[in-house]
Amino acid sequence: MVVVIKCRKCRHELVGETDCQRALVSAHGDTLNLSQPESCSSGDQDSLWFLHESATSWIAESISKHEWTKGKLNCPHCKARVGSFDFVSTSKCACGSVTLPAVHLVKSKVDSLSLNDNMLGSLRS
């Protein structure tokens, strides 16, 4: 299954299908497997998409601009706030065993489109 994440306000693609494969991580920082439930019952993952720091160029640029401290993630097209990052203060997962990834997108600010292989084949034909 492939996920594409778009800005809810302007529909600009924030994380494309090729980036989603490596960008999305679980609350424990592991590669996210969308077909399996999360092992931790973290309430945080219900409202957030956690991402790797180098998920996309616009995220990496925003982090570098703020010198790897903390800041907001804005859509590169319409500038709407879609998430944030915080490398200064850390938060623990609901189970208390792992520190949450520092970069996240807020699910209510973005649209995620899940495409299975059959849908992708018909779109590319």
Automatic annotation (TrEMBL):
InterPro entries on file: RNF180 (IPR033263)
Q: Which GO terms describe its cellular component?
A: endoplasmic reticulum membrane
Name of the protein described by the UniProt record: E3 ubiquitin-protein ligase RNF180
GO biological process, alphabetically ordered: norepinephrine metabolic process; positive regulation of proteasomal ubiquitin-dependent protein catabolic process; protein polyubiquitination; serotonin metabolic process
Recorded GO molecular functions are: ubiquitin conjugating enzyme binding; ubiquitin protein ligase activity
Signal peptide interval:
none
